[in-house]
TrEMBL record:
Pfam families: Peptidase_C48
Keyword entries, A-Z: Hydrolase, Protease, Thiol protease
PANTHER family given in the database record: SENTRIN-SPECIFIC PROTEASE 8 (PTHR46468:SF1)
InterPro entries: Nep1/2-like, Papain-like_cys_pep_sf, Peptidase_C48_C
Protein's name according to its UniProt entry: Ubiquitin-like protease family profile domain-containing protein
Domain Ubiquitin-like protease family profile: 7-163
Single GO biological process annotation from the record: protein deneddylation
Organism: Chlorella variabilis (Green alga)
């Protein structure tokens, strides 16, 4: 249906937008790419989609440079990561919840935003451990809460847009 930058949306991806469905990596990846390229193309702002975040979290600290160096993480002032709780590297597009991890270089802090309080903390911690710098901190942020079991991806995209605007 759409090829945009590094993202290719198929009909089944677009269909997720029409009902009460859980959004997949491709839809959130498209939103992140659009925010970075069109809505807020600013130096120092980096949005990392779920696929790269999943890879980073599973490579761990020793493999983090493979993902972060080409993205110029070191030069970024604000980095937004789409976080999924999929624990299984053998099962693509698994998991049951999306959240957002935001890194701010000014205070060397990672802030975790989850629309389902208490969810995804383990996944965010794994990502933090892979991406952190010596002295970095991780904190949970107060976040508007979803009222159903499928809007977490929408919250991630809305929060990412809000944080881009604030940057």
């Amino acid at each position: 249906v759409l090829s945009y930058g590094d993202t290719k949306l198929r009909g089944r991806d677009v269909d997720l937008l029409e009902g009460p469905h859980w959004l997949n990596d491709m839809v959130i990846g498209f939103a992140f790419e659009y925010l970075a390229r069109e809505a807020f193309p600013q130096p120092g702002l980096l949005l990392i989609p779920g696929s790269a975040t999943f890879l980073l979290a599973n490579l761990g600290r020793d493999g983090s440079a493979v993902v972060l160096e080409p993205l110029r993480f070191v030069a970024a002032q604000v980095v937004l990561f789409a976080v999924n709780d999929n624990p299984d590297v053998e099962h693509a597009e698994g998991g049951s919840h999306w959240s957002l991890l935001a890194y701010c270089a000014t205070d060397d802090t990672f802030r975790h935003y989850s629309s389902l309080q208490g969810s995804n903390h383990r996944a965010a911690r794994r990502l933090f451990e892979a991406a952190r710098r010596p002295g970095s901190t991780l904190c949970e942020q107060a976040t508007p809460q979803q009222r159903n079991g499928h809007d977490c991806g929408v919250y991630v995209m809305a929060l990412a847009r809000l944080l881009c605007q604030r940057y």
